[in-house]
Amino acid sequence: MIESPSTAGYAEEAADLFVRYEKRDPSAVHAPWAEFMPAPPARILDIGAGTGRDAGWFARLGHSVLAVEPVDALRTGAAKLHPEPGITWLDDALPDLTTTRARGEKFDMILMHAVWMHMTETERATGMAHIAGLLTPGGRLFMSQRHGPIPEGRRMFDISGEETIALAAPLGLKNLFHARTGSIQAENMARGIEWTKLVFEKTS
Fold first, then answer.
1. How many structural domains compose the chain?
2. Tens digit of pLDDT for each residue in 12-70?
3. What is the CATH number of the domain that holds 187?
């Protein structure tokens, strides 16, 4: 496992996360920004792939996926749960993505679902620069950011879509979509949790 404070709490909750994440339909999760997603076959990088729910869905649609997940309990469990041949699993993590970048690949789409708010300001600056370098020209970055009470044992920061847009702009990442909505999960709605969804396109 790539050790990082950003992954604190996930290994301990892995069993519960598989139940919670896998019961949600990925087509519904991604419906708000589906119009911006590439048609298959595309090369997709899923950073913080978790239980593999999204990676498996992308692979079944005909995409090839590099699924990056630093938490061993999640990555090994996800690989068993989602054995689709279109997925390659990798132990790596933000902000450096050292192993990912060493592969020398470029991606048509990068997904970071519920990852960015775990990064410090310095880590976000480093990570965004590396992410921009991993996109093909015209490639798109999809990010969701969680807002609300911080679960015990987790490290999270209160960040905004506006801040992320400002960070991405100098790197040639143009914002195409920006929306903040309440959670659609009953337990999260009760806690006042909201989500920001962002889509960027690499223009240079």
1. 1
2. 676 777 777 788 999 999 999 999 999 999 999 999 998 999 999 999 999 999 999 99
3. 3.40.50.150
